[in-house]
Amino acid sequence: MKKIVFTAIAMAVFLPAIAQDTYESARLLGNDLNGTARYVGMGGAMEALGADISTISTNPAGIGLFRHSTASISLGLVSQQDAVKFDGLNKTNMSFDQVGIVYSARPSQSTFINFAFNYHKSRNFDQILSAANSLKGCSQNGLTYYKAKEHFYEFDFNKDDEVMGWENGTDYRAQNFSQADYLNANVLLLDPKDNNFYYNDANSYSFDRAHRGWIADYDFNISGNHNDRFYWGLTIGVKDVNYKGYSEYAEQLLDSKGVCGSVAYGDQRKIDGTGIDIKAGIIVRPVEESPFRFGLSIATPTWYELTSSNSTYMINNTASYGSWDNGSSDESYDFHFYTPWKFGASLGHTVGSDLALGLSYEYSDYGASQNRIIDGYDYYDNADSSTDEVMKRNTERSLKGVHTLKAGLEYKPDPSLAIRFGYNYVSAAYDKAGVRDMTLDSPGVMYSSTTDYTNWKDTHRLTVGMGYRTNNFNIDLAYQYSATNGEFHPFQSYEGTQGVSDVSNKRHQLLLTLGYTF
Predict the structure, then answer these.
(1) Interatomic CA distance for residues 437 and 21, integer angstroms
(2) Do residues 314 and 326 lie in contact, with contact meaning Cβ atoms separated by under 8 Å?
(3) For the segment 12-42, what is each residue's pLDDT rounded down to a tens digit?
(4) C-alpha angle 352/355/357, rounded to 5°?
(5) What residues in the chain have per-residue pLDDT under 70?
(6) CA distance 98 to 55
(7) How far apart are CA 293 and CA 283, in angstroms?
(8) Of 211, 310, 438, 502, which one is least surrounded by beta carbons within 10 A?
(9) In angstroms, rounded to a whole number, what is the distance separating the alpha carbons of residues 353 and 413?
(10) Taking the model in full, what pTM does it have?
């Protein structure tokens, strides 16, 4: 066979509008339970209790309860249970999680005005995902074959040995043919003897992916306290996205005589960029004689401007099928992604100076997320974008409203010692019938380089912690156990048994916070 390396987007006669697909963008949705050890130890249920810098991003009014200036820093270890090292990523890694400062001013006897800045890692992408299963009457490259057959597309090589699509006598790049499809078509499916396309079923597959990176939140806050009865806060947040994932996927192919060889895919995907959002909240103590209070909060969408890039290769290890031994595709493109609004309500109560109880609820409709196509640039080189309506319908089908419930308590057997417990529940973001639909006429599909997806289920988090304060210093420790199960799909169902595998993400976190009050 020949050996060829080609770039998929060079196949296009024109540069199309660019966007991302539902499942790639969904990586940016939601937050880990992370921040100070006190906040984590109480399951994050501090939106009405306040006086913890981590509430700067959930209910900004919580910063209004500070009566003294304070600074803190947090770091620790995150370990994934039942994971095996892949692509150099270990199951246990260090993490720098938070650093922040609150400056508290008292302009009058009954009023405080506070200013705060906080960095925290809202998402830690470090995760190893592995899956393997049998296949029957299907294969990843079979999806390419059936898409071509269904839509009556024909293929041919141009002078640069690049696959072009044509219909009604016009060359074009079909938006529902992904980079993965063009690799399949070029390398494996085309028979050079008769220029027809054929495919083989597979009997099994294996998959491994190492996710790396983080979303870093930089929050700037102004908040206030009026007469210890009404607290308010406003936070402007800047997010920095650094995601990198490398995956390897392999299938054992069959012909009439049995196993005829294998095909392997390697894919590296990066997503980088920034986003901005605004959060606002209030806390009210309705009865002057009671410490009971409730809080309300709202967060705008995060408006992301992102760049996604991939480097993908395919190796054909069959002896007599396909046109090439290997192929590759490298792309980079800009797109916009808008997350949904988020709403929160919370309750807080203290009993004397020994016991604090917190309960919080948040809701966000992930199905309202928007992958946006960049239509062009204005005079000042600012990108104009519009919603990818085709992908939007798939997002509404595959993602749904997410409910987050937090409960926590803190008990002080001694004024200098605190013991904490918490529980944090996040409902499933993915619909059971959700699918990464690779047949959509969308640029989000066109630039996809993989076909796999996982429908993750609900998340349960259990936390414990303790804190010790002496003079102006405090030290806090927290432990968190998080568990999420999911269903891994190597590609969307088109016929036969698709090899769905049960996967899980079980994580242990140990967190240390050092603080100083001045």
Answers:
(1) 9
(2) yes
(3) 334 456 778 999 999 999 999 999 999 999 9
(4) 120
(5) 1-17, 148-174, 496-497
(6) 12
(7) 7
(8) 502
(9) 10
(10) 0.91
